[in-house]
Design brief:
Distance between the termini: 38 Å
Number of helices: 20
CATH topology of one domain: Porin
Number of strands: 21
Largest sheet: 10 strands, mixed
């Protein structure tokens, strides 16, 4: 297969996978050693405009002591963004967003979350985004552990460089005490922000590590929590990355089962378990020599792929259905010694996720709150018999011998108990926060409810899930939520050689419609965070009235992507694109010049307006 040609047709797959992976914030060195005021601060908000957001929001900052116990010494500034509720009579309780990682920026998610999975909540609630200490615009602690981040070679060997980690520690310690960036300290920061903004009780919303942080806040400040929504749940007592081995195995098993239940996938890849064993056998013998296409430099590159890198790329590709739909094809190719497309896609996802994590803060949290509690017996028990193994766990234990460690109270490892309404949501094929973690975390929650989304991974945002969350927060109870819509969730179509061949054939036909057809051209811009991607929709109606279509994405050098099914009426448009797992639904304006709708892909949804181009 032509790797470059294949990747040029897969650019869209990144959108769903990287919805949480856009634009890391620049490091801020602004610090103040002056004494803090003795009375509570009033947080002043000013109108501001964020990149990728077409309306003014409110921005501010709040200063805290880095050493909260000493209440002296270095002070750090926390970045705060508020999206005011759209209702004329908003509810008094806002929604506070907790970012993942650990190490992700909450503020960097504003443009995506505010337009997509938190949009429904914003109707009646202010949305509050606070960059946790050590992330985003709050004295971030970044580490580049891979050197040139556009070079695939740096990502297909060891998990990360301990030498680079030591150098990063030395650099960060010039402006931060790395032992003071724990979750309990950060939650005290957050409650100060709550008070400074004048809110009494709040709703919590957190995914991945954000669920951990939200549970810590719930424990430390129970009287301030009205509801908590937790997705991709990891409770404080569940040490990461300990569950990864069983989680990855479960996610891959679910994927293979879904492929076997799909006629086209089953026909193309009849024995994926054997394919995986064959690929691993090749890598156990020796690292693979691979010619891959680099999606960032847009050039071919020769690399050597290790088994460790292979299993890490599998893990990250399992995060979303949008990315995992490629795994049957790439696993089958890998079994035959062809790792090129797998490396291209795996590198693209792995690097783009890592770009968003402040690794200094990440290790300050993980080493203090997770790794120090993992024993050799834990490691052997949880990784035994898995193909994923204990490589990441060993690497983290080595890293934590280097990294300064916060002192957390013994009670930190106790299960979180609460009477507050808590909705816990898991993907049934989550590779890093498998559903049994949330099930265990639900037991001590008197008013907790756990729901599982089928056919999905760690990162997701389905309309059904969004509606459930809005209903939960409105009612203040999860007991009577109607979750029947979850049964309608499906994986996007799996990618096959047949599908890629169809794309190549479609691209060869060029832009001109066949003779005797009428063509309509619609143009729009898809905004995902700070990314703006031009899209061109070409619809052709043949002499027999049949409607066909293609989509171009000039900014991704992708053209002629085929549309499988189209329904166009005077008032609406709907089309599906199997190759990228996308669906568009929109309403046509009265004069027929604009279609206002939503682009759905990989369990995420973004606004997209299409304007009819002049003939």
């Amino acid at each position: 297969m032509n790797i470059e040609g294949s990747v040029r047709t897969t650019g869209f797959f990144v959108l769903g996978t990287l919805a949480m992976c856009l634009g890391p914030a620049a490091r801020s060195a602004a610090q103040n050693k002056a004494a803090a005021p003795s009375s509570p601060q009033k947080l002043q908000l000013e109108p501001c405009r964020l990149s990728g957001w077409n309306e003014d929001v409110r921005c501010g900052s709040h200063t805290v002591f880095e050493d909260r116990q000493a209440k002296a010494g270095r002070r750090i500034t926390l970045k705060v963004v508020v999206l005011p509720a759209l209702s004329g009579k908003p509810a008094p309780d806002p929604v506070f967003y907790f970012s993942g990682g650990p190490g992700g920026s909450a503020v960097d998610t504003v443009t995506r979350a505010g337009k997509a999975y938190l949009a429904g909540l914003r109707r009646d609630h202010d949305l509050i985004f606070v960059d946790q200490r050590g992330t985003g615009g709050s004295n971030p602690l970044p580490c580049n552990l891979y050197g040139d981040r556009n070079d695939i070679v740096n990502f297909v060997g060891e998990l990360f460089s301990l030498e680079k980690l030591r150098a990063c520690r030395a650099e960060l310690e010039k402006s931060a005490d790395l032992k003071l960036y724990s979750t309990p300290a950060a939650m005290e920061d957050l409650d100060e922000v709550r008070a400074a903004l004048g809110y009494d009780r709040i709703n919590l919303y957190g995914g991945s590590y954000g669920s951990t942080a939200a549970m810590v806040y719930l424990r430390q400040f129970p009287q301030r929590v009205r509801t908590a929504t937790l997705l991709g749940v990891v409770a404080p007592e569940q040490s990461l990355p300990l569950p990864f081995a069983k989680g990855v195995q479960n996610a891959l098993d679910r994927l293979f089962e879904d492929c076997a239940a799909d006629d086209k996938c089953r026909t193309a890849f009849p024995d994926l378990k054997s394919d995986l064993k064959a690929a691993l056998k090749l890598l156990d013998k020796e690292p693979a020599s691979v010619d891959a296409f680099n999606p960032f430099t847009r050039r071919p590159q020769h690399v050597t792929l290790t088994r460790a890198a292979f299993v890490e790329f599998v893990r990250t590709l399992l995060y979303t259905p949008d990315a995992s739909r490629w795994l049957p094809l790439t696993t089958h190719q890998a079994a035959e010694g062809e790792f090129g497309l797998f490396v291209t896609l795996g590198f693209q996802v792995f690097r783009s996720i890592d770009d968003q994590i402040a690794r200094g803060m990440h290790f300050s949290v993980v080493c203090a709150e997770d790794i120090q509690f993992v024993t050799d017996e834990d490691s052997k028990r949880e990784t035994a018999g898995s193909f994923y193994g204990e490589g990441r766990l060993k690497a983290y234990r080595q890293a934590c011998e280097i990294w300064p460690r916060a002192t957390v109270p013994a009670s930190f490892r106790n299960p979180v108990k609460s009477d507050a309404p808590v909705l816990l949501i898991s993907g049934d094929a989550d590779p890093v926060a498998p559903p049994w973690l949330a099930e265990a975390a639900t037991r001590p929650l008197a008013n907790g409810r756990h729901v599982v989304v089928p056919h999905t991974g760690h990162s997701f945002s389905y309309p059904c899930v969004e509606a459930l969350v809005v209903a939960f927060v409105a009612k203040g109870s999860a007991r009577e939520l109607d979750t029947s819509c979850l049964s309608q969730v499906r994986r996007p179509p799996f990618v096959t050689e047949e599908m890629l061949t169809a794309i190549a054939r479609s691209q060869l036909t060029g832009d001109s419609p066949p003779a005797g057809t009428e063509q309509e051209v619609w143009r729009g811009v898809l905004e995902i965070g700070q990314a703006k991607l031009r899209l061109v929709l070409r619809l052709s109606r043949g002499a027999d009235g049949a409607l066909t279509g293609k989509v171009d994405s000039p900014d991704q050098n992708a053209s002629g992507l085929p549309i499988r099914s189209i329904t166009l009426t005077e008032r609406s448009l709907r089309f599906e694109m199997d190759v990228i797992g996308a669906v568009y639904e929109g309403k046509v304006t009265g004069d027929g010049s604009v279609i206002t709708g939503q682009w759905q892909q990989g369990g995420n949804s973004w606004p997209l307006d299409l304007k009819r181009a002049a003939k």
